């Protein structure tokens, strides 16, 4: 995905403003959000198997020195999910970042089903993320894929969260979007 496309879609002119611009869209659960989601899907040729924001985030937002942030390569996410070998079931991620490990696990599980036999409600997630910059992208990545579960914005080690978000896929549709509700 190109930065210019994100600037246009989220009406920003600086990458540092992107997380702030994404958050109201993700939590609006509106027809405008759905239009933006469809545009993002089209720009990425409907490939939902990986995190579209990873390279942009690594280059623009990473706080590797200050917060020791690191990024999971897509291949490691796929390998980790494959090693678990679970066809259906809950996934827990204590340091979710943008969600690349969760996306890899979700994608592998979806691929093990025949079309329209994959139900988000059978594969809920629970995750934590500390970074204020990652949370909007994480919520977008999960909700655009129809993933259900709970996202804690906070410190997993201290079990203190700044906010908690519930992702709900009302129709339990693997091709639908999830609502993001602030708890």
Short description:
By secondary structure, the chain is an alpha/beta fold. It contains eight helices and five strands. The model has no long low-confidence stretch (mean pLDDT about 90).
Q: What does this protein look like?
A:
It is globular and about 40 Å long. The protein has one domain. It has 183 residues and is α/β, with parallel strands linked by helices. 34% of the residues are buried. It is built from eight helices and five strands. Helices cover 42% and strands 15% of the residues. Helix 2 runs parallel beside helix 8 and helix 6 (74-84) crosses helix 7 (100-111). The chain has helices spanning 3-10, 18-28, 31-43, 54-60, 64-67, 74-84, 100-111, 134-143; strands spanning 91-93, 125-129, 149-155, 160-168, 179-182. The longest helix is centred in the first third of the chain and has 13 residues, at 31-43.
How does the major sheet shape up? 5 strands, mixed
Total beta strands: 5
First-last Cα distance = 31 Å
Structural class: alpha/beta
What share of residues are in beta strands?
15-25%
Outline type:
globular
Write the layout of secondary structure elements.
Elements: H1 3-10, H2 18-28, H3 31-43, H4 54-60, H5 64-67, H6 74-84, E1 91-93, H7 100-111, E2 125-129, H8 134-143, E3 149-155, E4 160-168, E5 179-182
Parallel strand pairs: 1-2, 2-3
Antiparallel strand pairs: 3-4, 4-5
């Amino acid at each position: 995905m190109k930065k210019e496309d994100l600037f246009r879609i989220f009406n920003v002119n600086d990458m540092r403003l992107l997380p702030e611009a994404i958050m109201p869209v993700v939590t609006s659960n509106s027809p405008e959000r759905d239009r933006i989601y469809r545009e993002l899907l089209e720009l990425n040729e409907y490939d939902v198997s990986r995190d579209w924001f990873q390279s942009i985030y690594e280059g623009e937002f990473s706080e590797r020195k200050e917060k020791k942030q690191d990024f999971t390569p897509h291949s490691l996410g796929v390998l980790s999910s494959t090693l678990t070998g679970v066809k259906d079931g809950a996934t827990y991620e204590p340091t979710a970042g943008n969600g690349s490990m969760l996306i890899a696990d979700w994608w592998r599980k979806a691929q093990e089903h025949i079309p329209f036999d994959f139900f988000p409600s059978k594969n809920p997630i629970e995750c934590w993320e500390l970074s204020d910059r990652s949370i909007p992208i994480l919520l977008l990545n999960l909700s655009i894929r129809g993933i259900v579960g709970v996202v804690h914005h906070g410190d997993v080690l201290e079990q203190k969260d700044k906010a908690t978000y519930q992702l709900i896929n009302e129709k339990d549709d693997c091709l639908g979007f999830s609502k993001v509700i602030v708890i």
